[in-house]
Structure formats: structure tokens, C-alpha cells
Design goal:
Elements: E1 2-7, H1 30-47, E2 51-55, H2 66-78, E3 83-90, E4 99-103, H3 106-119, E5 125-130, H4 135-138, E6 144-151, H5 155-161, H6 164-179
Parallel strand pairs: 1-2, 1-3, 3-6, 4-5
Antiparallel strand pairs: 4-6
């Protein structure tokens, strides 16, 4: 398969991140973690024979988060992809924890369920959720999933995602879920 792997959010021209930041709760910055994690996800999917294009918004270029949407969608629409995966981390109170995968289409649901099953071996299973109000899910031609890997505001979740070894483990789980849908 040809996969577009996108990282949710960006770093704006003024240096601010458009993502959630759970550092004050013992967690991490969503964008920075997902940017690093996307490398491991790409590696694992590539090992399984997929062609993966990693799409990140340019750092310190945009003035507002609204520019992220057009940047990503233009690149996705120029490529001929079989699947779009967008990486995110959830954020809420420090007590919230777990993983969930969002989708819109029936094809997306299949991928979401398979990835969710894998990630919930590490994190609390919050299930899959159909959403029709997110551009990455409803404005792409191929099926798309948005992975909320864990809560960046949860100290216990972050422990399971912190460091290269844990990111590699989680990337293998995502790739395994995608592979099981073939």
C-alpha cells in the first residue's frame, strides 16, 4: 500500500505549538512526541513493504493553525494513497488515560479497529470513534484514521510512550494492525 503518514499540528512562526502540552502533568508535548514517533511508524510500515510518505508541516512558517489543513490536504491530494494515517495525542485532565482511533468511512473503521486492538494491549482501550467533523477524515479521498495514541496529560500513559524503545514498540503495534487488514 501507499500510505500518507501525517503529524497532527505544527510549530508556528512565533515558536508556539498548535498542539496540546501535557508537560506540567508529567506528560509531553503532543507535536514534538508525534513528530519523533512518525519516524518509527514509517520505518515499521516500510519494513512490511508499504511505501510511506511522511507529511509534516514546515516549522516556524505558518502564522495560524488554519494553514496546516491546506498544507496537508494539498500533499495528500497530489499523491495517490491507499490510506491516510494522522498521529495525535489526546489531552484532558491528568486522570484521563488510554488510546482511541478515529475514523469516518467503513474502510477507515476496519483500519481503526485493527490498530485500536493492537494499541490497547499497552493502553486502556477507549475504543474506536466515528467522526465526521475532522478534515483529515472527511476531506481525503482514501480512507483515513486519526490515532490518539495516548493522553499527553497522563503521567502513566506517557511512561509507556516515553523514549525510543517504547516508540518503536508502539510503532510495531500500529504497523501490525495495518498489516492485519490486508
Amino acid at each position: 500500500m501507499k500510505i500518507a503518514l501525517t503529524v497532527g499540528h505544527s510549530r508556528l512562526k512565533n515558536g508556539c505549538y498548535t498542539s496540546a502540552d501535557g508537560k506540567k502533568y508529567g506528560g509531553c508535548n503532543e507535536y514534538r512526541w508525534c513528530r519523533a514517533f512518525s519516524k518509527q511508524v514509517k520505518t515499521e510500515l516500510t519494513k512490511m513493504g508499504h511505501k510511506v510518505d511522511r507529511i509534516l508541516c514546515p516549522e516556524k512558517k505558518f502564522i495560524s493553525s488554519s494553514e496546516e489543513k491546506n498544507y496537508k490536504l494539498n500533499r495528500i491530494h497530489k499523491g495517490i494513497y491507499d490510506l491516510v494515517i494522522e498521529l495525535h495525542l489526546n489531552a484532558a485532565s491528568p486522570a484521563a488515560e488510554g488510546t482511541e482511533v478515529l475514523y469516518k468511512s467503513a474502510a477507515g473503521k476496519k483500519y481503526a479497529a485493527a490498530v485500536q486492538k493492537q494499541l490497547s494491549t499497552v493502553f486502556k482501550n477507549r475504543g474506536i470513534l466515528q467522526r465526521d467533523n475532522l478534515y483529515i477524515l472527511n476531506q481525503t479521498k482514501p480512507p483515513a484514521i486519526l490515532i490518539e495514541t495516548f493522553f499527553c496529560t497522563s503521567k502513566s500513559d506517557y511512561k509507556k510512550g516515553k523514549g525510543l524503545a517504547n516508540r518503536r514498540k508502539l510503532a510495531k503495534l500500529i504497523a501490525s494492525g495495518i498489516q492485519k487488514t490486508k
